[in-house]
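quick one before i forget lol
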Amino acid sequence: MSVYSMSQFQERTGVSRETLRFYETRGLIRPQRREGSNYRVYSDMDGLEVLRIKTMQAFQLSLDNIRDTSASLSLAEQEAHLSGLELQLEEQLAHIQNELACIRKKHSFVREAMTAGDSVSELNTYGIYKLMLLGDEVKVSPKMKEIAAQWLNCMPMCEIGWHIDRKALEESGEKPVPTQIGLMMLPRYADDYHVSIESPAFLFPDGYSIRMMIAAADPFHITRAQLEPLYAHAKRKGYRIVSDISGRYSGYSCENGMPRYYFSARVLVV
């Protein structure tokens, strides 16, 4: 069996002098000494051991674990460890994919906010659970606090939403109408996270909708004029509005010292 000086061994294994010394101090390798000197010499078996250590480190085993189990780590134990690592990495991957999906959704919200103005779109929309927390007309109850705590733990699966009473808006003339702002969550997420959806949470139903984006310095007070393009579109197309105004927070900007909050506003029509 061949023997090598430290420099020769480094060349063959690609492992630094410091790492070899570290492995030795941890009892992972035991190089021989040249007769009559303190110079280390390494064998092919030492090289195999170094490669084995590197392989086991790739399995996310600590050096202490490698040392302690090097004489007794069976194939079954290796298989069990790798199964655990595989599950762990799958969970990490699922978490990363979920985060990526949330970032993509937020990106779509910001792009959508950039369309604020007179543009009105038509679409089929899903029903969504809503829990209104803020606004002049919101009455806070112990049950609301309990549900809000559950929903907030589900962010970003739940989002910021708002709600405007259609009747109050249509009777307001030019006077601002108070809005309610809180949380909203798709039914599938409510099921996945097992959150409470009892009152004061409520379901805004699905159906055919018209929608626009608005920008408001004060999203807690909205005038009929700000939503006039929505009403004009419904009138022009012969639609009848059959719901309150529901929306989702899409973004925020501050330009020239002027804050702007961007919300979608949709109504169900027939």
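fyi The CA atoms of residues 240 and 269 lie 5 Å apart.
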